[in-house]
UniProtKB/TrEMBL annotation:
<dbReference type="Pfam" id="PF18907">
    <property type="entry name" value="DUF5662"/>
</dbReference>
<dbReference type="InterPro" id="IPR043721">
    <property type="entry name" value="DUF5662"/>
</dbReference>
<protein>
    <submittedName>
        <fullName>Catalase</fullName>
    </submittedName>
</protein>
C-alpha cells in the first residue's frame, strides 16, 4: 500500500475521531468541517511524501528543509490551532501575542489532540495520553493565558475522569452557557 493511501486513511481516521468527539459535545458543524485543508494539494502532497505512520509528516518535512510548508498552510486555515490566533501586539515589549480563542475552538483543539494521540499511540492510548503529549510539547508563550488555562483544565479532567465525564461537562457546563 502506497504512502498516499496510508496518509489518506490516517487523516480520514483522524478526522472521523475528531468528528465523533465534536458531535458528543454538540459541535456538529466543526466536527464535519474539521481539517478539510489536509486534503488540499499543499498539505496532502507533503503528507504523502513524509508519511511515517507514527508521527506527523510535518515534523519530518521540518527536519529536512527547516520548516513545514504544510503546517504553515494548515495553521492559517484552521481556527482550532492556537497559532491561528497569533497577531501583532499593541503592547510594549512584544512583537506578537496570542489572542484569546473562542471556547468552541478550544474544545475542537482538545478533540484534535485526543484524536492525534489515539492515531499515533494506537493500543497504548489512555485518557492521560493527550495531557502527557501536551506536557512534553513546546506550546510556547504565544498561546493566550486564558486559552492555555481552559485547554489544560480539559486535559487534566480527561486524564483524571475520562472522556464521558469530560465531554458531558463540556457540553452541559461550558458550551451551553452561551
Amino acid at each position: 500500500m502506497g504512502n498516499a493511501w496510508k496518509h489518506f486513511c490516517t487523516i480520514t481516521h483522524h478526522k472521523y475521531l475528531v468528528m465523533k468527539g465534536c458531535f458528543r459535545v454538540g459541535l456538529y458543524r466543526q466536527g464535519l468541517l474539521h481539517d478539510m485543508s489536509k486534503y488540499s494539494p499543499t498539505e496532502f502532497r507533503v503528507g504523502c511524501k513524509y508519511f511515517q505512520g507514527n508521527r506527523s509528516p510535518n515534523n519530518a518535512e521540518r527536519e529536512e528543509i527547516g520548516y513545514s510548508s504544510a503546517w504553515l498552510h494548515h495553521k492559517g486555515r484552521n481556527k482550532h490551532h492556537f497559532e491561528y490566533w497569533i497577531d501583532y501586539s499593541l503592547g510594549k515589549g512584544r512583537l506578537l501575542e496570542g489572542c484569546k480563542m473562542p471556547t468552541r475552538y478550544v474544545v475542537e483543539m482538545l478533540m484534535d489532540r485526543i484524536a492525534a494521540s489515539k492515531i499515533y499511540e494506537k493500543e497504548k492510548y489512555t485518557d492521560a495520553s493527550p495531557l502527557l503529549y501536551y506536557e512534553k510539547g513546546k506550546i510556547g508563550s504565544l498561546i493566550h493565558p486564558e486559552t492555555r488555562v481552559m485547554l489544560e483544565r480539559f486535559l487534566h479532567m480527561l486524564a483524571e475522569m475520562g472522556e464521558d465525564k469530560t465531554f458531558a461537562y463540556i457540553k452541559k457546563e461550558i458550551l451551553k452557557k452561551k
